[in-house]
Amino acid sequence: MEINKSIFKAYDIRGIYPTELNEESARLIAQTFLKFLSEKLKKPIKELHLLVGRDNRQSSEPLLKAVIEVFLEYGVKVDDAGLISANDHYFGVGRHKYDGGFVATASHNPPEYGGFKMSHLNLDNPDVLEFIAGKKLLAKMEEIDLPLTDEKRSGTLQPKDFSNDHLNHILSFVDLNKIKTLKVVVDSGNGMNALMIPKLFAKLPGELIHIFDELDGTFPNRPPNPLTENAWQKCGQKILETRADLGIMFDVDGDRMFLVDEKGQFIRGDMALLMMARPMLEKFPGSGIVYNLICSHAVKDLVKEWGGKPIRSEVGYMNLARHMFEEGGVMSGEVSGHFAFKDNYYADNAFVALVLALQAISKDGRKLSEIMQDYRLYARGDEINLKVEGIPAKLDMIREKYRENILDEMDGITVEFDDWWFNVRASNTEPLLRVTVEARTEAELKEKQAEIVSLINN
């Protein structure tokens, strides 16, 4: 069959089910994954030991069933963790040293999407989890013959539950005696973290108010992505109604965490990163904190002030993980709510981020909104997405106009002035330019945003 190449993304595989991605294409993807992993690990396919699982989307069960059938057909030993979050996937592969992980999930895409996330351990360092990019798997698919001609033999399939191991791992990042009794609203968005949250809060002091805690792959209560406009409002309302100390939100596959303060106001990921970075630097003095280049300059300034090493990265969790490993980082964070940790196999873990945030709030003693004021050193606008044609020409225009002030082109173009800076970068997946601007004051921010947008649109 002819597979739809558009489903192979920069980080994973995602497509509308069943028109763009279906069981037939899943079988081809599964065979390609086996070949990729076998060559990468220098191990015959029949000797591979894999962890599989799925999220609660309606497409994930039939898609994973097709994948498991392929794995078993080629003699693979398969452990099926059933319904798992992205956090469980990364922890499971890392802790139990599987050759690879293969999970049916479409991340935070709308409910009509299906998809896959794939991982394996670093060949030289088994404490480092690596992700298999969708585009990388497509390249492998185009160079091999399918179906595979490897020997067929019966594999084995058994259920696997490591949730208690994972819970203990999460709690190992904090001192429970230092977490105060807090009232916390948790919005799981009818997604996968709803399974772990009651177990986690049973070990924590305080009161849990859990909303959208039933698994529902149609995600009826709010958008799957908490960064969608107004997605946080119901969580904010519940905080105000219950007079809670804070709110926690997850995307539906569970790897991203967001904070909402006691006033019901959403907190950007780079500000949450700072709150976690400080105790991490107290525990690991002089360590690196990795942040992406659209984070506020407050991250760089405060990490330095606290004795840490700020490490700047391209956008995207795979990039941050690489910088963390190569440059001695202890944790990383993005505006998008991805938080990864060296001691979590260099992978994301939203639950670890949650407990670190609770410990940081407890230690400070002030309200969350008051803590955040310490970190808002600059006026940073939300990322602006501009639909444009001729992206290379637009970027050339930016280069020409601001050539004296270009900082670098690590990811798009970053331009730096004494009182403001901006980054313009192309989207990986859409015909968009993404614009981030930060300035000393709100007035200057608005002025400079208008300047950049006008230049690009004209």
Automatic annotation (TrEMBL):
- This protein's source sits in the domain of life called Bacteria
Q: Which residues form the Alpha-D-phosphohexomutase alpha/beta/alpha domain?
A: 6-118, 165-264, 269-375
Q: Which organism is it from?
A: Candidatus Komeilibacteria bacterium CG10_big_fil_rev_8_21_14_0_10_41_13
Biological process terms from the Gene Ontology for this record are: carbohydrate metabolic process
Gene3D superfamilies, per database record: Alpha-D-Glucose-1,6-Bisphosphate, subunit A, domain 3, Alpha-D-phosphohexomutase, C-terminal domain
| Cofactors required | Mg(2+)
Q: Which UniProt keywords apply?
A: Isomerase, Magnesium, Metal-binding, Phosphoprotein
Q: Which family does it belong to?
A: Belongs to the phosphohexose mutase family.
Alphabetical list of PANTHER family matching this protein = PHOSPHOMANNOMUTASE
What this protein is called in its record is: Phosphomannomutase/phosphoglucomutase
Q: Which residues form the Alpha-D-phosphohexomutase C-terminal domain?
A: 383-453
Which gene specifies this protein's sequence? Answer: manB
